[in-house]
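Q: I have 194 residues here and want to know how they pack in 3D. Can you give me a structure?
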Amino acid sequence: MDQNKIHPDQKYIDGLAANDSVIIEMIYKKYAPKVVLFITNNSGDKDQAQDVIQEIMILLFNQAKANKLQLTCPFDAYFFLLCKRRWLNELKKSSNKGVTIYENVVSSNESAHDLIAQTEEFDEKQQLFDTMFQKLGEKCQEVLKLSFSLKSMEEVAEKLNVTYGYVRKKKSLCVGQLTQWIQEAKNFNSLKNN
């Protein structure tokens, strides 16, 4: 079987990107219980499990919206591994002690592991961008947010009640500053090559 073939479960990713409530509800009904069971069996409670599931759903939504996710394995394996790794990272952060993991689900699905790596890299890049974006001034943030959501720079200028020339120059300066900060970040080089 071709490793790069899109899995039929891509419907879940497409549903998330479209914010399809039926697909989202289906994910929660079919796949969340397994995650809750894993986390409650491994030093967590139901609330913590729901938090992990929510974080992963948001991550998948963002990645799907960015068209950066082509599912090449069953959604179940991918979703479970992402949640499991997020939980293990939480345990590692909150404890310097060793952690014993009890699980009866072992996945040897290589394409799931490849996708996990891509998703974690996407998450790191997103976090780096968000952190640096927050460092920008209020005006820069406003110009960039509007330029991401509106069709043209003319619309941005009109919305801000400034000239087209001003908004283009401001956007260029803001993007330049944002790019510089991202490139100067400690973890940029490790993310850049992926």
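Q: Anything worth noting?
A: Confidence is low (pLDDT under 50) at residues 98-108. Residues 110-135 form the longest helix (26 residues).
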